[in-house]
Amino acid sequence: MELKLIGILGLTALSGYYLLVILFFHRGFGRLRPAPGQPPQPFSIVIAARNEEARISRCLNSVLLQDYPGDQYEVIVVNDRSTDNTRAVVEAILPRKKNLKLINVAECPEGVSPKKNALAQGIREATGEIILFTDADCIVPRTWARTVNGHFTPDIAAVAGLTTYFRPASMPPLFWGLQAMDFFSHSVVSAAAMGAGLPINTNANNFAVRKELFHRLEGFRKVADIVSGDDDLILQALTKGGGAKAEYAPEKGAAVETEPTLTLKGVWEQRKRWSSKTVYYNRKQALVLSGVFIYYLSILTGILLSPFKPQIFPWVAGAFLFKTALDFTLAFRGMRMFGKTNLLRYFLPLAFLHIPFIVFACFFGIFGKFAWKDGYVKKRLG
Question: Is 243 a domain residue?
Fold first, then answer.
């Protein structure tokens, strides 16, 4: 009986903690504002591409058509040891675009994340004051650079924006919707946390930093051997201790679309990779997310124990419903803000998968290996 009481009290306390976290995120949403607008600043758009011959042309067609002064932005494609025709595709476009550059990476130093190595080489050649990142499988709007630039007031070190999944014609709607809703939830947290002044995560395919501040951090040097984290870890390092500010661009003109993962196995490996970097988060961010993880783990444990301890089921079910209701308030607010209410129909199905998916992805991402490009790797190289 005492053990049951302790469990119930613990679950109640964690529910209260989760309520405070969601309220904190709602407060952050209330602080998001459209860009005040800024004179054009020199941009360098850096794209790391490895074996992206099927996608890089589509990406460049959007990136090179910005409604931004042509002499104020350049596009740098870093061909990262591709074994397909990525290089040839970019070289065919080069003669027609004076602001397009191609860098070919022949090898990656041992113990260094390949993507960080590629990005670092692109940044080294960049002439812009602001580095804007996207990926080779993304499509950006014409207003992308202009909208992001509008947020770069003198006191802003980094700007992030929304990334969502478009749906390939061959992808089943339910599989796309569940994946899109889960991915969207990451952007909701990113936007809310930045608005609240505690940046937690961002998407590397829609993220911009001031080059001078990036170099002051010594670039990726301190996190070079961590496979993932070319976005979150840099964002957190920039803003650690209040040294610089990050801002989220809520406008549709800053939103990027990317290709979803086409297989269930691919989604699983991707989420493990994302989870693997959380152990390197700053203390405040790690404490917030650790409390959330313990709450999810407690609910999952209670569900698994319910067949053997039926008396705890009402408490566990109540915690699950409470968590789902709070998630809905935040997700729906994000859907309305970003014009993504079409994802609403997928919220409830995802709610039943969300807790076990997050718990197991975190566990296997941190303690196991995950597939990435050429094979299976651990979270840290070397």
Answer: yes
